[in-house]
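Example S7 (structure tokens).
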């Protein structure tokens, strides 16, 4: 198998000043931030990677005519005959004849999804087309072809050709720092950078002028996984971003920051800048945020109680784990949250079949039963660090306190951008739910996902670094909602 290298958008070295990885990518150009050289060759195009789909005239010839029936449930023979006749007309591009017989199918069987799907493809009126697509989705919410057709009608993706659900976009490396769109977390009244997040009162406060504003209560709706996957796979390129280029919204100073960093405090003016999007449109905004319910003071008290516990004292008998100093910082970490509806297929042995006459040769003792199940608020960390072992020990979060995401809510605490994309997180959520239901039923059942929705949430964590007198450093986390403490193993400085 031939392994193809990932082609970068920006050159690795500037041909004018010989600077390495000095290019900044914007929508308009790719420019060296050291000498101002602008890339103009055809291999490096600064055009937006995900261009907005244009509403082209409806082309009925783009669809490949198929006689295959995908409708879930029984179809009467005369309905199937009418559908076959409709496809015969469509193959000859007799659109009026095809539409006539497809309408006959619906007259006979109103929920026949294949007839609704093809009417949405062959009719000209976008309102009628949308009505037929929603009829399909009313009976089968995860119907892939219907979801794609609806997204084409609504202008979310461009149409054309036959869709292959297994086709993945090309992966490309940005090759340089990608310019960002930022939100400056300043007070809207006085413009100061002293805006803070009062978790107990549920308001945003300005320590300078006393400005108060209630936090947003609206939380972004759950996204349908099937639709998100179709939209992702309809894009030509999937970008890998290593660094982002940020220009302060207050003083205008510029610098390069790590790709996973979502909030940056300007070293010159002290204002906080929150990244909303970048020039390659690689980011998804959080749908909600769980505020801190544990103050810094209470977090340190919980840590002190944990360190003075019996287990820690026992460790101190063998090692000098006396604390020299503690560093603590509030951080919002990104988590993908999934709601899953699935069917469990459990194969059982029907013992009653053994009681039948032995003369009956054609019988099957294995029977399959279908058990409906559901799992809500399945949390999957959207990051690699802090390590999963520490995260799992933080315990559960109550998502009943989720509020709408507002970049200004990050004025007091930092936050990180997810590095695990939603499609990979969905596979992990599927595996996690499957393991849970197998343990519940004590059987190796098969899990068939029927419906899956997700959203991106920011959850509160206090990050702890403990410097010990024996020159070891010990990482730790505290659940910013419940106060549960998770401590890692001490490590020698310099390792």
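Recovered sequence:
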């Amino acid at each position: 198998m031939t392994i193809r290298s990932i082609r970068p958008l920006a050159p690795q070295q500037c041909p004018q000043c010989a600077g390495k990885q000095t290019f900044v990518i914007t929508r308009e150009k790719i420019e060296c931030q050291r000498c101002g050289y602008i890339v103009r060759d055809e291999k490096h195009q600064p055009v937006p990677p995900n261009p907005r789909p244009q509403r082209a005239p409806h082309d009925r010839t783009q669809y490949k005519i198929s006689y295959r029936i995908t409708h879930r449930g029984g179809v009467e023979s005369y309905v199937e005959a009418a559908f076959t006749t409709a496809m015969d007309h469509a193959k000859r591009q007799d659109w009026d004849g095809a539409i006539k017989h497809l309408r006959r199918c619906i007259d006979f069987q109103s929920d026949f999804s294949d007839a609704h799907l093809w009417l949405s493809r062959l009719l000209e009126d976008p309102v009628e087309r949308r009505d037929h697509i929603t009829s399909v989705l009313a009976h089968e919410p995860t119907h892939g072809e219907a979801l794609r057709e609806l997204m084409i009608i609504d202008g979310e993706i461009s149409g054309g050709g036959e869709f292959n659900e297994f086709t993945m976009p090309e992966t490309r490396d940005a090759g340089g720092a990608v310019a960002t769109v930022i939100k400056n977390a300043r007070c809207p009244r006085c413009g100061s950078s002293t805006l803070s997040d009062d978790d107990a009162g549920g308001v945003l406060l300005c320590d300078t002028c006393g400005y108060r504003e209630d936090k947003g209560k609206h939380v972004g709706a759950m996204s349908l996984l099937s639709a998100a996957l179709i939209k992702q796979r309809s894009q030509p390129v999937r970008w890998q971003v290593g660094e982002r280029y940020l220009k302060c919204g207050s003083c205008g100073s510029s610098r390069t920051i790590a790709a996973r960093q979502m909030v940056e405090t300007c070293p010159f003016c002290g204002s906080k800048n929150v990244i909303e999007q970048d020039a390659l449109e690689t980011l998804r905004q959080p749908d909600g945020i769980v505020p801190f319910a544990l103050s810094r003071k209470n977090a340190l008290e919980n840590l002190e109680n944990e360190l003075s516990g019996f287990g820690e004292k026992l460790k101190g008998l063998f090692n000098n784990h006396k604390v020299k100093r503690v560093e603590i910082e509030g951080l919002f970490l990104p988590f993908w949250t999934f709601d899953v509806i699935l069917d469990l297929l459990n194969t059982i042995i029907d013992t009653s079949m053994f009681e039948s006459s032995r003369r009956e040769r054609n019988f099957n003792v294995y029977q399959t039963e279908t058990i409906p199940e559901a799992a809500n608020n399945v949390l999957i960390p959207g990051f690699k660090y802090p390590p999963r072992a520490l995260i799992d020990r933080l315990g559960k979060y109550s998502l009943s306190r989720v509020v709408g995401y507002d970049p200004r809510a990050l004025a007091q605490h930092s936050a990180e951008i997810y590095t695990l994309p939603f499609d990979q997180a969905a596979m992990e959520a599927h595996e996690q739910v499957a393991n849970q239901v197998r343990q519940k039923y004590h059987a190796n059942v098969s899990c068939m996902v029927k419906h899956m929705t997700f959203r991106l949430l920011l959850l509160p964590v206090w990050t702890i670094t403990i410097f010990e007198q024996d020159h070891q450093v010990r990482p730790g986390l505290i659940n910013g909602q419940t106060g549960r403490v998770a401590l890692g193993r001490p490590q020698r400085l310099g390792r």
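Notes on this example. Residues 296-492 form one domain.
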